[in-house]
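Appendix B, example 12.
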Amino acid sequence: MSKLAALQGKAQKFNIGGVELELKPLGIEELDMFTVDEKAPMEKQIEVSRNILKTILKKSVPEATEEELNNISTEHLSDLMEAVNKLHNITAAKDSRMEHIKNVVKSRQTQAKDPEQKA
């Protein structure tokens, strides 16, 4: 191996919903997944985030079925997105888009728990 091997992303362990996951980071091959304008409609930003999460989870848990990936509860999205940010060394200051999406998810979770709350 060349010295570039030292620049490869390293898997990290995270506890999400009581499940220990060793998440593998995206590489240059998947760089296009991060290319969405922060002014893009929220639906597009959420679609990009969903694709990033599904790709990372599939790389990390190759035996996971499409049904399992699609049925992960929204209650875990905030923790998953935080893990993705840490895995890729993305801070809120570097990527306010991910922080905004996390806030939208938290807001929707709160609304789901309290149906009387206004949007």
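The first strand starts at residue 12 and ends at 16. Strands lie at 12-16, 19-23.
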